[in-house]
Amino acid sequence: MSPTAYLVLASLLFAIGGVGVLVRRNALIAFMSIELMLNACNLAFVTFARMHGNIDGQIIAFFVMVIAAAEVVVGLAIIVTIFRTRRSASVDDESLLKL
Amino acid sequence: MLTQMESVQPAEGVFAATWLLILLPLVGAAVLLLGGRRLDRIAPVFGTVMPALSFGYAVVLFAAMVGRGADERAVSVPLWDWFAVGGYEVSVGLLLDQLSMAFVLLITGVGSVIHLYSIGYMAEDDRQGRFFGYLNLFVAAMLLLVLADDFLILYVGWEGVGLASYLLIGFWQHKNSAAVAAKKAFVANRVGDAGMSLAIMSMFVVFGTTAFAGVFPAAAEASEGWLIAIGLFLLLGACGKSAQFPLQSWLLDAMEGPTPVSALIHAATMVTAGVYLIVRAAEIYNLAPAARTAVVIVGTITLLMGAIIGTAKDDIKKALAGSTMSQIGYMMLAAGLGPAGYAFAIFHLLTHGFFKANLFLGAGSVMHGMNDEVDMRRYGALRTVMPVTFITFAAGYLAIIGVPPFAGFFSKDRIIEAAFGEHFMYGLAALIGAGITAFYMTRVMLMTFAGRKRWADDAHPHESPPVMTIPLWILGGLSVVGGLGLLYLGGGIVDWLEPVTGEEHHELAIPAAALTAIIIAVVAAGIAIAWLIFGRQPVPTTAPAGSFVTVAARKDLYGDAINEAVLMRPGQYLTRSLVYVENKGLDGAVGGTAAAFGGLSARMRRIQTGFVRSYALSMLAGAAVVVVAMLLVRLP
To answer: Three-class SS of residue B79?
Structure first.
């Protein structure tokens, strides 16, 4: 099977994730879109590892998963805290730091 | 020619503690100024004892010096190394030679007498600790000035006396006029001090040292241009300190200080420091005739200016101040004549120290009895109520106008003679000056002590207490015998100073006795004119309008006006325009730059919207740009 299809799929997923981050206001949806982008990257890594017969890409994919898990923990905690204090999960509302 | 630095002996025996001369009044100043108000009660006595002890020691030193041969009298007293930078070393040391000795005796002697007088004069003042502390500080600084063996050390004393003068002129600083006068004296002295520092720097450039022992022997090898420059710089310094033209204007205002201060600092000692400086630097002036001519011209102008100012002043202290300017002009004139005149300059300086201190203290005694009235038009007929003041003042008066055998006759006669020996015009100016001196001093005398009473209604003139009249007797006595004594006792002042100043005699076209007769005739004419105007007819209590000459003299010959027009106003315009340039130009440029960046950053701030998604978009765009750039670079 040609690796091109995997790469196209990864690109599509990354684009969908990127658009999701940019257009959706809900923090949870944006968060999910980020996960989608990360996994698109993972798919690309694994594909390239397969193409080159090299295991490095797969190892990197595992790293990304571990880091993503940690990031989810921190990110969800922030979202929950903000939701508790401000009764909103919209990312556009969190603009208090600008002048 | 001169060998003044070659025969200096190391200090031994009684000379080893020469520094005590300075230390005693310095300790007095330190104790009185640091002790504060608690010492006000003992201050007068304590402050008088310190310079008196110094005088006692000076007399011991003088006796020891007289006991030595003429070539062995100069003594050097090295003290400590001040600092060393590279090959340049400044060591603090004292040089006690015949010239310094004369000054030390004058400063401590007349100084002690004036301290004594101050006990009575300042009795009513409630800040006596400070007053006597400042006076002691002055004596210490003045002694350092005349005892220094290095121009840099001399400069320390030079600034010290300037400081003491400033503090004492402004002693009654609650009076605005006193505060302004003190500031004026300080500023005028700064101009002179700039000349002094330039002279010292030039010496360092030319000779690599500022010590007398290094500069004077090397002077013969220096180029004449440098010597003239150093001579003129020193002259500028001397003009500032000695109130010589063109820096003369501060001295008349300095009379705002207490009268003992005027007597000690602004008549007898400090203002003569310029003369000391020029005589001390004789070896430089001897080799720079152009600089000497400048000294003579400055002296001649000032002696006439001071005398003319003295004729028109109704304030007794200002009339005497004009006279001081004039007499110092005589000394400068003599000092500028070179070896023919140095000794006479110092001779006149010493006799002037006696009779001018005497006159000022007499004026102070009159003011003391007249509720601090200084206007001579409100005096009159005081000779009967103040007999002691009258007699002693008369002694000073006869001394200053040069009536034989009073002190001033001998010194002034010698100076006029030497001036005629140099050039006819100098002699003529000095002779005219003597006539004017006789005129204005007779005027002071007649307006104060003769005529009818013109006192203010609440004036009850009385003789001063003994603590003030004893100094008057002492100085009055010196005014009588000082000239004769200095000239003829034990070889006299000229022989005494000869190892330091050298000697030279010009032959006159006419015999000296004939010239003396002419001088006395001119003096007599001055007295007669003054008597015609102020003795024969009553003195009006308000000043008459007067001719334009009188008006000019009342305004100090427009010295202040000229300073204002030439220096002050242009200076103010300059500062004002600089402030304008600063505000509009420099501040504008700096402020404009800041405003430009401020405005720019205000625009840039808009980018920071606070919306997370816009940041995400910019991150994405940035990442895309990086990727595109990498691809472009990778493309072959």
So the answer is: strand
